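Deliverable D2.4 — example input (structure tokens):
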């Protein structure tokens, strides 16, 4: 299995994303309500296999995580804190920030309803938003290569793995 090589590329991409996130957090700190113990966006998201395997490889104690009351809750949220914070997937890293996506040749802005409550959309410019399409495209391409080199996983390119299933993926 050629997993470590791809995980290394994934971590490099994640580190680049983190630099953009930090820049935006500094820029928008006065408008951000998200902070430690904010868990309103912590859900059992579907993530790409490359992310799931990167997360799974960080576990030393799988028994520390228990089933949640609903399939929507993230099992890594313990006492309102993310227990995999350093390793959390892209979607969790970017929650709360002003994010721009291209949909049908138009740009759409996405912001957390708890943040930026008194700011008009005109406040947001290309310089103070996170354009996720570039990161998502690079992540998707990396995921395709990861799956091509690991056919024994039996996963399709468009497969999403629920975050809560990361604890069992290497079993």
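Example output (designed residues):
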């Amino acid at each position: 299995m050629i997993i470590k090589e791809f995980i290394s590329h994934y971590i490099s991409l994640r580190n680049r994303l983190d630099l953009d996130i930090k820049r935006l957090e500094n820029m928008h700190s006065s408008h951000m309500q998200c902070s430690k113990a904010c868990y309103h966006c912590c859900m059992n998201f579907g993530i790409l296999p490359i992310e799931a395997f990167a997360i799974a490889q960080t576990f030393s104690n799988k028994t520390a995580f228990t089933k949640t009351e609903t399939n929507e809750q993230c099992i890594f949220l313990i006492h309102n804190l993310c227990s995999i914070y350093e390793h959390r997937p892209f979607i969790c890293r970017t929650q709360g920030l002003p994010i721009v996506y291209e949909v049908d040749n138009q740009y759409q802005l996405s912001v957390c309803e708890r943040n930026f409550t008194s700011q008009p959309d005109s406040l947001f410019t290309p310089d103070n938003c996170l354009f996720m399409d570039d990161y998502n495209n690079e992540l998707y391409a990396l995921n395709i290569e990861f799956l091509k080199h690991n056919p024994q996983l039996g996963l399709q390119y468009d497969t999403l793995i629920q975050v809560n299933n990361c604890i069992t993926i290497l079993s």
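Residues 4-168 form one domain.
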